[in-house]
Structure formats: C-alpha cells, structure tokens
C-alpha cells in the first residue's frame, strides 16, 4: 500500500485499538472490593431531563447508606454505593443496569424513577437474577419477582384520594393528566372508584408531555364545572398548568384540585404562591409529626442545607435502603434469592410511619395522606388513611 | 358550548396567537430576513427566562417592597442580555455560516445542546420558581362567568407593542431599509456602501433580543427549566415557515391561523390529536404553497 | 394547432405578480436556423428563453416544439425532447471533472440502472468528440471548478452537444470571453448550427453580425421587429430603443 | 466496475475497520458486546445519511421515523412471540381486548422482514417525490421532516394501547425460539450484523462511486442544471432518500436486537438530529467514516456518561460545532488533509 494510506492505516487502527483496549481498562474501571465491604447499586438519571426529579432521591439514598455504615453496616460489612447515571435515556438505563449486575456484581440496585426506565431494566434484572428496589409511586400493573416496590402503587393513593374527595361534597370530577401510562391508569382506577361512590366523571383530558398551553383544557374545566379536579399532569407541564389555572381564577376556592404527583419537591418548581390551596395525595409529607420524621428531615437539612425540602420519592428511596438492609439481616445473606424470600413481611419504622413489605406481591403496606399546600410550600395534612394493602392488579 | 365558554375560548385563541407571534418574531427576523437557521432560538428564550428569574431574586433580596414591579425591569433587561449574547453568537459562530444554511442548522443545534447543559450546571436541573407580580395575578371579569387572565392580557398588549416596534423598525427606518436591501442582494448592498457585517450583527442580535423578551414573558404562564427551549423551537419554526419566510406580516398571520386551529382542535378533540391534526394541515398547505402563505413572487 | 417549424411560440405571456415580462410574443424557429435575440436590458430576453425551456412557467399562451405542445411539460421532459439550454452565467458541476460533467449529460446513460451498473468509461468516444469540438480535449481530467470562465462556457456547450439537441438556447455564450475565445465560439456555433437550430441572446452586435443569422428585437417584453441584421440596423425604431441613444 | 470503487486505499481501510470490529469482542468483556452492537446499529443510519445528505444534499431530520419503522416492526414481532398466546402486557393495562388489526401481520416473521425493508420505501418515496417535485428542498425539507418526526412521537405516545406509549415496547427475548437476550447469542448476532454492515457499506460505496454517484453530486451542487441535462431530479432524490431510509430502518431493527427495547424517545426529533452527527463526524461524504464515527460516538457516550455525567451534552454540542465549522469533512477529511489530497467539498445543500 502507498505511504499515505499506510499513514492512514496507522492512524485509524491506532484509534480503534485504543477504542477496543480502553473499555476493559481506564474508562470502564473494574472496582476491586475489600472483604468487609458490600456494594449497593444506585441507578438514577444524574443528567438529562429527568435528573431534576432523580438527583434528590440519590441524596436521600446516600444518606441512608451513611447512617447504616455509621451504625456498623450490614452483616458487619460497610455499604459502598456504586452510582450509575441513566442519563434520562432508557436504553442507557438498561446498559448501566447490566454493568452494575455483571461487572460490579452488586447484590441489589436501588433505582429508576420513570416507568419507562424501569420497564427498560426489568429484562436485565430477570436475565441476571438481580434485585431492584423501585422507590417511586407508579401505576402498578406489575409484580416482578426481581423487584421490590417501596412506594405507593396507583390504587393505594388514588382510591384513598377519591374516597376522601367524595366525602368533601365530591359529586363531579374532572380528570386532567399528561398523556402517558401513569395518568391513564390512575384515571381508570379513579373512574371505577367514582362510580362505586356514586359520583360522576364530567371530563377526562390528556396533554402531551411537555405541553405548556392549557387555556383550552381550562375552558373545558370551566364548562364542566366539576366539584373536584383530579390532576396527574407531570413535569414542566404541571408548572404551566398550575400557573394558568390560578390565573384563570380556578384557585381552589370554588373548584378544588387534588394531584397524586405533586410532592414538596414539585412545589419548589411550581412556585409556592401558585400551588397554595391545592391538595396533594402522597405517602409522605415533610410536615408529618413523628420522631422518626423529625430526625430524618433534620438529617437531610444538616447534610444538604437548610433550604432543602423533602418529598415522597426521597423518603421512599431512603426507606428502600433500609428495607434491603433489614431483609439481608433477616436472610443472614446477600444472596439475591434469599433476600427476596426474606423480604416478605419485613417491617420498617420509616419517617412516614410503619411500612411493611407485602407477604406475596413485593409492594409495601403503607398509609397515604392528603395535604393542602401552604404558603410556605409545606402541606397541612388533612387526612391520613389506614395502613393500606398494596393491590397492583386491581379488579375494576 | 355556552356563550361564556365561547368568549373565553376566543380569548384563548387570541392570547395563544400573541404567544406564538412573540416567540416567532425573533426567528422571523433571523431566519426570514437573514436566512440563518437558529436552532438555539429556544435556548435564547430560556436565557431570557433565567434572566427574569435572576432579576426577580435580586428584587426579593434588595427591594422586597417593590418586588411587584420586577417584571417591568426584567423584560428590558432580558432583552438587553439576550441582545448582547446574540451579538456575541453572531460574531463567534453564526457569521462563519452565512450561505451554508444546513451547516448553520447543525451548528446552532450543537450550540443549543451546550446552552442547555450550561443552564443545567448553573441553575440546576430542577424548575426555577419565578414569583408572579400580584397586579398581574388573577383575572378580570368583563361580564359574569367570563374570566380573562390579567397576565395573558398583559402578554397580548406587550406583543402588539413589540410587533408594532419591529414593523416600524423594518419598514420606516434606515436600518430596516438596509436589512431588507441585504436580504435582497448582499453583493449590491455592499457596493452601495452598507456595512453588511454590522447590519448582520445587529439584526441577529435583535432577533435574539426578541427571543429574550418572549422567554421573559413566558415565565408568567410556562415553566422554566434547562430544557424549556426545546419545547418551543419546532413550533416556532413551523409558524415562520408556514407564514412564508421574509414576511413579518406572514408570521403574524400564520401565528393567528395556527393558534386558532390549535385552540379549536384542543377544545373539540384532545391536545394530542390537536397537535397531530395541526401538523398535517400545515404540511398539506405547505405542499400547495411551498414558500408559505405570504411568499413574494420574484423574477428569477 | 401544429406546425412545420421546429419551435412555435404562440401569444406567450409571462408575468411576475403584476409585472409583465413577456407580452404576447409570437416566435417561430426553423430547424437549422440561427436566431439572435437582442434588446436592451430588461427587455425580457432571458425570460423568453426561460419560458421556452421551462425554467419559468408561461402565464398564458402556448409553446409547440416539433409540433407537440410543451408549455406545461417539466424541464427534463423538454430536454429529453431535444432542447438544450445554456445559462448566462456558466453553470457546470464544479466538483466533477470535465469528463464527468460531459458524461452525465449523455442521454443514453441517464437511466438510473445504466448509471448504476454500467462501467464509467462508457461513451468515451462521444465525450472525446465533443471535447474536441469545444477545445477541451486536453482538460478531460481537470476539475470543472478550476476552469477559466471561457472554458466553463465551452464545457457547458459541450454538455449540451452530447445531448444532440435539435434546438440550442444560448444565453450570452461569449459573455466575459477574450476576443480570441469569441471568434472560436462563433465558428463553434456556426459548425453546430449546420445540424441544429440555435437561439442566441447577445448584446455584442459584431458577434451577432459574425453569426449572420436572423435577428429578433425585444423591447419591454414585446417583439419590436424581426429580420436580417442589416434590416434591423436600418430600422429607426430599433435605433431609437437600442442602437442609437 | 467504477474505478473509484476499486480504489485500493479504500479497501485497505475497509479491511482495517471491519477487521478491528471483528476482533473487538475478544478484546473486551462479554457483556460489552451488545453495546458495540447498539453503537453499530446507528452505523446503518449514518451510511444512509452519507448517501442522501453527503452526496445528494438532502438533509432529512426525519431519519428517526424510519429508524422507528424498523425498530417497532421487529419489536412488535418479538413482543408477540414473547407474549403469545396472551396479549402484550401493555395492551392488557390499556384494556385493549383483542389484538389491533395493525399487529396481526406481525405474527409472521417474513412479513416483519418485508416491513423492515420495504415499508420505508412505501412511506418515504411517494411523500418525498411529491415534496421534491414541488421544489421543497434544503432547509424547508429539513424543518418539515423535523416537524414530522416530532408529530410521530406525539402519536406513538398518545396511542398507548397500540404502541406501548412512552414506555415503548420492552421485555422480549426470543427470536424464532432462539434466546437473543443472552450475551452468547448477542455475540453471534454481532458477527452477523457486522457482515450485513460490511455489505451495506460496500453497497453505498459502490453507489457513490458509480456514475449515479456523480449525478448525485451534480444534484447536490446544481440541481437546476441537472434538470436541463434531462434528469428527473425529484425522482432521483426521492429514490436516494428511500435507500437511506431503508438503511435507517435496518439500523432500527438491529438496535432492537441488541438493546431489547424501543421507545418513542429514539424516534423523536432530538434523536433524529443526533443521527446526523454520526455522518457529519465521520465526514459527510465518507462511507467508512460513518461506520467509524457511529462506533466512536456511541462508545464515547457510554464512557463519558460513566466518567462525568454532565459532560456528555457539552461534548455532543461541541462535536456539532466542530464538524460544521472546522471539519466540514469530518475525521476522514482530517485524514485526507494529512494526505494532502483535495476532497469533494462544497456546501452540504
């Protein structure tokens, strides 16, 4: 070959050799592990569009890990978190899950926020017999043998919320949601509950994710004049929705609004004065009065600054770490199969009060609460449910 | 549909027109008159929003009593900042791409990614809160059952103001004349002694500044996070292309048509269908009028 | 209607917005004829060619080529019927070599299948011939972008010649050429005119004289007069609008 | 045979690149191999973009649509295989009682294959032919396609019962009874794909070096003139873009094989524009550059997001600027620069 093309050869090949050699080495490190340490995978979006929700959860999870280590670790081993960035990109989540399970060989992973990311990693956990703790409220319709769900699934919050609203002269409901699975499932449950309670649904609207122009939907609400608006609008859309609702005079005085997706963290973005007076249904509120919670909140503020607010997903992430620890100790082993088996009916006195993993369905028994947003971005808890059984596959 | 709803729906259409027009005016100038495909236009709007956010915070810290007036300062400041940033962009990036439209498209897209990540690093990934001036809060009720949100009325008024200013600038001033001259024949314009470099820079900066105003105003009704710009960019381009490039009147008209269709469809069907329907209609119309609604016939 | 003549332009009207560029023009070209179209700037010369070859749609009227009505046909169809158009500013493919420029203009090679599957040294013979006719034989492997202005003009003419058109539409073929090049171009055109009809737009009267064809004078989009160059120059109206000032 | 196609230096590089890609699985842990497969699935798309944009000057920001056609077609087939005889899970949640009509044919593998290879043409050709006949081109075409890919995402997410909505289609592992989720299977698939990729690369290289390739360049640089040489440029452009779309569709199918999922994200506007950078980085007129770039960028994305999560967008954005401002011919242009050989230049449109 000619000299020039040989130079080409050298350049191209050398780059590619680098590309092939490096993965094993520098850029994809294989962490060595001391005998008295155990890894715990944390898989969340640290970059991209969902980072705004997941970054806070990681903080809570890290804090739980520190607490446990300070108290002597799990079975005498210190927990070493291995944080992977899902980058708000579902295939990346699957890729990283695989890395955690196959390269880092973590006995458990706490992670995922959106259902899409969870769906993306499920096959990986199935194939590699991994264990995932999923710390976010979600639509249910799932019961994966490799997953423990540490937050409320749809029925737990929606049914409680609907029953309570019905009690507050809730004869007519208007559902507004972002156009994806969580809102659609919630509304299905809500509709069934409404009919059971003899109330009626006078409207059901979905806005594309990221939609910011709600005036038409708001007009539809005004036309329908419901007693309650039940909202599952998420993300940036939600901010726009609340602002436009308020501006249009639907400030919660005549038509009341309740959302199952707004925690203290969302209020931060919506703006305190835009959210005040609206209701939210969550498993956890920062304003819960209990020694565990005051300790928890104080710890968060001490670690991440006094302006930090704590929302439901953070607390569920925090609980997840402990639920894993307790299950491991019950099983006296890090072996995934054993831990899953032991998880059944594991109890933890969480900041939100007692949570118990269900005997069979991998979700948690928990209370849900309804709060009314205050001017300071916190919630006045106006209702607290009984300890509710998780029911991911409701018969509707 | 009751009469009240009809009025409010009509108002929604009008206010959405204002929103579309405000966000596409800047692009209509940059793309329409200069032929620069600025994919970072949305990020310039986001910049305007973040400037507003900062101004609001300054007021909260320094003059908490007169915080209600912050928006009146925020808008011009947002304009100024994005204007200057626009000049910088023109000088540092855009000017290397004149007459290479497709490369401009890709380069500015890259720029938009960098800006997004910058916002994320500087302001954090979460939504930022921007207080609402109390005098823009709530709605007026011209007659019973019809509430017209004050902030939307404000937006409509401001849009009319800006649009009028832009119109006068381009059709009644020397600068406007120069810009139009350049758009029609750069070479000739140079030979008759127009400093095209300078005019280009100011035109682009102006377009950016208008984006800044839009971004600043949208903090009243929308959300502000690093990705905000992405939400607007495609719609903005659709408005401009649909209206017919190089025609500010066209942009105004297409804002109106698109807004009316969108709000009506949204009311009749669902938001998702509305978006799809609208897009299909736009594509069909663009098929029959490839140069948009207002396309000047010229002798090739 | 049909006609014996090669090109028949009938009551042609072209308007842009309000402005009428071609105003009810009638024109007929016989095969083998050289027709020069002259007229002051803005008289609509180029627009007339554009309308004939399809670059600009006719607003009104009809155009017949070889007795077939073509005014609603697309450019490439008209080209395939045997029209060749040379533009005022030489338009060749700068990134391709002279050889390739001519090669892709060969009508036989234009079916995509043949373009994909036939080896690329097809048509070497014809390409050589036209290259010779246009004095480009020595430059076949040069990138067209690097040619001189005059050479580009010739290359474009070469690209037309391989199409063997019956009608050549040349828009100021000698613009920007040296005197020597002009003379070469003149006998080039005369040589080809033996086999095909040519319509030439030109300002330069000497050049028009050398071509010694019929002349059509356009003024403000309408035909002012037609005839031999002598008649034209004798015509007072022409002197008024064009020659004498 | 076109002599450019027989150019020795090209084949040398061809052998180097594919040789190295062939050795790759041995040089790295087994579970990385599917990743390489994922990276290279974008190489198909990039090849198409080189053809349609690099040579023919058509910038389509709707390649994601066709990536999606291939991906969803295969995913639907695999999902049906995985869930049969029951309905796919997401349909059950969305209370879809029986299989939607659109899904029925995807029970047949041969239909799925036909869909992957033919559907893109059926979608792309008629539409773009009309558009190009109307002389809609350049920026307008780019924005139009961008808008369409955006609209498509909204539709997919909106019609959850039929498409899996925002979650997309996931959780399937067997292809005709063969468990393709395992690393061994994916390693074997990797070699198969490499073969197909090499074939496609050679094909594209053949096309661009044939006389047809010269016509494409001519269209890119002076479309009006080409019409006057008697070509129906609209037809040629539509055909060329269709080929490019088929390649995108193949890429989509490959992506599904190696990641085991498809979501609307990968079909949307953002994804579509990102696909352009693969071709741009490799050099918009360089076939092998496209393959190399697709791999290199994919790998960098994984590496960077592990090292510094925040860095990725900066890097990607910078890359866009770099290849448009400084390296219009991408890395291959850079290599040619060292070789002091003038490359095919000219504006991308």
Characterize the structure shown:
The complex is a heterotetramer of chains A (396), B (300), C (245) and D (349). Chain A is an alpha/beta fold. Helix content of chain A is 44%, strand content 19%. Chain A folds into 2 domains: 37-152 and 297-365, 3-Layer(aba) Sandwich (Rossmann fold), CATH 3.40.50; 154-282 and 370-384, Rossmann fold (3-Layer(aba) Sandwich). In chain A, the strands form 3 sheets. Chain A has a 7-stranded mixed beta sheet with strand order 7-6-8-9-10-14-15, with helices on both faces. Chain A has a 5-stranded parallel beta sheet with strand order 2-1-3-4-5, with helices on both faces. A 3-stranded antiparallel beta sheet of chain A has the order 11-12-13, with helices on one face. Chain A is globular and about 65 Å long. Chain B has helices at 3-33, 41-62, 70-92, 101-123, 150-172, 174-184, 186-191, 196-218, 228-243, 248-268, 271-288; strands at residues 139-140, 148-149. With 300 residues, chain B is an all-alpha fold. The relative contact order of chain B is 0.19. Chain B has a domain at 22-134 and 149-228. In chain B, helix 1 (3-33) packs parallel to helix 5. Chain D is mainly α. Chain D has a domain at 3-9 and 32-267. Chain D has 14 helices and 4 strands. A two-stranded antiparallel ribbon of chain D has the order 1-4. Chains A and D meet through helix 1, helix 3, helix 4 and helix 6 of A and helix 1, helix 2, helix 4, helix 6 and helix 12 of D.
Largest sheet of chain A: 7 strands, mixed
Mean pLDDT of chain A: 87
Number of domains of chain A: 2
Output the strand order for the largest sheet of chain B: 1-2
Low-confidence stretches of chain B: none
Helix content of chain A: 40-55%
3D shape of chain B: globular
State Rg of chain B. 20 Å
Strand content of chain B: under 5%
CATH topology of the largest domain in chain A: Rossmann fold
Shape of chain A: globular
Gap between N and C termini of chain A: 73 Å
Contiguous low-pLDDT stretches of chain A (5 residues minimum) are 1-31
| DSSP strand tally of chain B | 2
Question: Given the structure, what is the number of helices of chain B?
Answer: 11
């Amino acid at each position: 070959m000619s000299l020039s093309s040989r130079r080409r050869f050298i350049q191209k090949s050398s780059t590619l050799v680098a590309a092939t050699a490096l993965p094993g080495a520098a850029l994809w490190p294989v962490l060595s592990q001391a005998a008295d340490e155990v890894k715990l995978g944390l898989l969340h979006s640290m970059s991209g569009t969902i980072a705004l929700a997941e970054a806070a959860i990681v903080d809570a999870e890290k804090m739980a890990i520190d607490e446990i280590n300070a108290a002597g670790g799990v079975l005498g081993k210190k927990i070493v978190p291995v944080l992977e960035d899902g980058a708000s990109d579902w295939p990346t989540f699957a890729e990283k899950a695989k890395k955690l399970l196959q390269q880092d060989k973590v006995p458990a992973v706490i992670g995922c926020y959106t259902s899409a990311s969870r769906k993306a990693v499920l096959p990986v956990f199935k194939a590699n017999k991994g264990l995932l703790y999923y710390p976010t409220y979600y639509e249910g319709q799932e019961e994966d043998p490799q997953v423990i769900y540490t937050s409320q699934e749809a029925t737990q919050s929606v049914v409680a919320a609907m029953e309570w609203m019905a009690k507050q002269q809730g004869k007519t409901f208007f559902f507004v949601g972002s156009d994806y699975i969580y809102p659609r499932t919630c509304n299905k449950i809500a509709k069934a509950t409404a009919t059971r309670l003899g109330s009626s649904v006078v409207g059901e609207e979905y806005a594309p994710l990221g939609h910011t122009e709600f005036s038409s939907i708001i007009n539809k609400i005004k036309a329908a004049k419901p007693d309650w608006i039940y909202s599952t609008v998420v993300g940036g859309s939600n901010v726009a929705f609340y602002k436009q609702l308020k501006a249009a005079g639907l400030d919660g005085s005549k038509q009341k609004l309740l959302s199952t997706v707004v925690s203290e963290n969302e209020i931060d973005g919506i703006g305190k004065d835009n959210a005040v007076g609206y209701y939210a249904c969550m498993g956890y509120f920062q304003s819960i009065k209990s020694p565990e919670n005051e300790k928890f909140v104080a710890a968060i503020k001490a670690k991440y600054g006094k302006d930090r607010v704590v929302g439901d997903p953070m607390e569920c992430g925090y609980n997840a770490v402990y639920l894993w620890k307790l299950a491991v100790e019950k099983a006296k082993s890090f072996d995934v199969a054993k831990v899953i088996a032991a998880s059944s009916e594991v109890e933890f006195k969480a900041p939100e009060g007692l949570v118990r993993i269900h005997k069979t369905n991998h979700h948690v028994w928990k209370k849900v609460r309804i709060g009314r947003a205050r001017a300071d971005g916190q919630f006045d808890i106006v209702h607290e449910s009984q300890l509710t059984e998780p029911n991911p596959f409701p018969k509707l | 549909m009751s009469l009240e709803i009809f009025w409010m729906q009509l108002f929604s259409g009008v206010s959405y027109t204002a929103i579309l027009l405000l966000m596409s005016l800047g692009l209509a100038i940059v793309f329409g008159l200069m032929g620069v495909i600025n994919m970072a236009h949305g990020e310039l709007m986001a910049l305007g929003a973040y400037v507003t956010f900062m101004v609001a915070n300054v007021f909260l810290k320094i003059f908490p009593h007169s915080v209600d007036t912050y928006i009146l300062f925020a808008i011009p400041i947002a304009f100024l900042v994005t204007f200057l940033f626009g000049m910088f962009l023109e000088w540092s990036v855009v000017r290397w791409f004149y007459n290479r439209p497709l490369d401009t498209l890709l380069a500015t897209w890259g720029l938009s990614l960098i800006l997004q990540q910058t916002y994320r690093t500087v302001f954090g990934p979460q939504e930022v809160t921007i207080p609402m001036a109390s005098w823009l809060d709530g709605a007026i009720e011209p007659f019973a059952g019809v509430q017209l949100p004050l902030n939307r009325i404000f937006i409509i008024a401001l849009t009319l103001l800006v649009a009028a200013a832009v119109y006068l600038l381009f059709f009644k001033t020397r600068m406007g004349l120069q810009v139009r001259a350049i758009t029609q024949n750069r070479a000739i314009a140079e030979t008759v002694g127009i400093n095209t470099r300078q005019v280009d820079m100011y035109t682009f900066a102006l377009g950016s500044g208008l984006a800044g105003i839009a971004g600043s105003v949208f903090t009243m009704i929308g959300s502000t996070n690093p990705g905000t710009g992405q939400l607007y960019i495609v719609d903005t381009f659709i408005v401009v292309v649909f209206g017919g490039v190089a025609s500010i009147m066209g942009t105004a008209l297409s804002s109106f048509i698109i807004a009316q269709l969108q709000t009506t469809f949204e009311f009749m069907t669902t938001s998702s269908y509305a978006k799809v329907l609208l897009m299909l209609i736009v594509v069909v119309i663009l098929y029959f009028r490839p140069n948009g609604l207002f396309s000047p016939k010229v002798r090739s | 209607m049909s006609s014996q003549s090669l090109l028949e332009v009938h009551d042609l009207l072209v308007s842009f917005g309000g402005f009428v560029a071609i105003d009810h023009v009638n024109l007929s070209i016989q095969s083998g004829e050289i027709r020069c179209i002259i007229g002051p700037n803005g008289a609509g010369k180029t627009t007339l060619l554009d309308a004939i070859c399809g670059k600009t749609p006719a607003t009104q009227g009809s155009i017949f080529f070889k007795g077939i009505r073509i005014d609603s046909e697309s450019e490439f169809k008209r080209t395939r019927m045997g029209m060749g158009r040379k533009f005022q500013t030489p338009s060749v493919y700068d990134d391709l070599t002279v050889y390739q420029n001519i090669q892709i203009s060969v009508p036989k090679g234009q079916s995509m299948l043949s373009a994909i599957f036939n080896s690329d040294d097809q048509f070497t013979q014809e390409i050589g011939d036209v290259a010779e006719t246009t004095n480009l034989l020595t430059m076949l492997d040069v990138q067209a972008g690097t040619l001189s202005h005059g050479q580009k003009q010739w290359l474009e003419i070469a690209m037309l010649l391989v199409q063997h058109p019956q009608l050549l539409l040349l828009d100021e073929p000698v613009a920007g050429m040296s005197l020597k090049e002009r003379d070469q171009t003149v006998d080039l055109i005369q040589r080809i005119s033996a086999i095909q009809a040519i319509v030439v737009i030109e300002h330069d009267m000497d050049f028009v004289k050398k071509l010694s064809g019929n002349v059509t004078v356009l003024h403000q989009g309408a035909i002012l007069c037609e005839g031999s160059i002598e008649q034209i120059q004798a015509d007072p109206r022409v002197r008024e609008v064009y020659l004498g000032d | 045979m076109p002599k450019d196609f027989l150019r020795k230096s090209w084949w040398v590089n061809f052998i180097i690149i594919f040789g190295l890609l062939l050795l790759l699985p041995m040089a790295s842990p087994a579970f990385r191999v599917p990743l390489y497969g994922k990276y290279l699935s974008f190489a198909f798309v990039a090849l198409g973009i080189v053809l349609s944009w690099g040579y023919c000057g058509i910038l389509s920001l709707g390649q994601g649509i066709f990536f999606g056609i291939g991906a969803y077609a295969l995913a639907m087939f695999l999902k049906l295989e995985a869930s049969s005889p029951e309905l796919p899970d997401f349909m059950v949640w969305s209370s879809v009682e029986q299989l939607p009509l659109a899904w029925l044919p995807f029970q047949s593998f041969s239909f799925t294959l036909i869909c992957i290879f033919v559907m893109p043409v059926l979608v792309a050709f008629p539409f773009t032919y009309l558009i190009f006949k109307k002389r809609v081109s350049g920026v307008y075409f780019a924005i139009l396609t961008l808008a369409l890919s955006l609209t498509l995402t909204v539709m997919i997410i909106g019609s959850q019962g039929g498409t899996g909505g925002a979650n997309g289609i996931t959780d399937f592992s067997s292809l005709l009874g063969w468990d393709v989720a395992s690393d061994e299977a994916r390693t074997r698939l990797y070699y198969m794909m490499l073969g197909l990729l090499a074939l496609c690369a050679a094909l594209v290289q053949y096309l661009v070096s044939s006389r047809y390739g010269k016509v494409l360049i001519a269209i890119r640089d002076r479309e009006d003139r080409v019409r006057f040489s008697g070509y129906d440029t609209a037809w040629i452009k539509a055909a060329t873009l269709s080929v490019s779309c088929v390649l995108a569709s193949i890429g989509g199918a490959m992506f599904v094989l190696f990641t085991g999922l498809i979501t609307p994200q990968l079909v949307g506007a953002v994804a579509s524009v990102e696909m352009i950078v693969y071709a741009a980085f490799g050099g918009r007129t360089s076939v092998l550059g496209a393959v190399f770039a697709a791999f290199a960028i994919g790998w960098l994305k994984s590496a960077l997001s592990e090292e510094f999560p925040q860095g990725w967008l900066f890097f990607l954005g910078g890359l866009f600027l770099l290849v448009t401002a400084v390296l219009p011919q991408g890395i291959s242009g850079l290599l040619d620069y060292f070789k002091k050989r003038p490359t095919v230049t000219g504006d991308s449109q």
